[in-house]
Amino acid sequence: MKIPIDTNQFEDFIVENKLLDKTRENMTQCLKSWYEDDKEHFLEDMWADFDTVINTYTFENEGVSFSKSYSYEPPLDYISVWIRIYDNEGSYCAEYTAFYDNDLNCFDDKIAG
Question: 91 by DSSP, 3-state: which?
Answer without folding.
Answer: coil
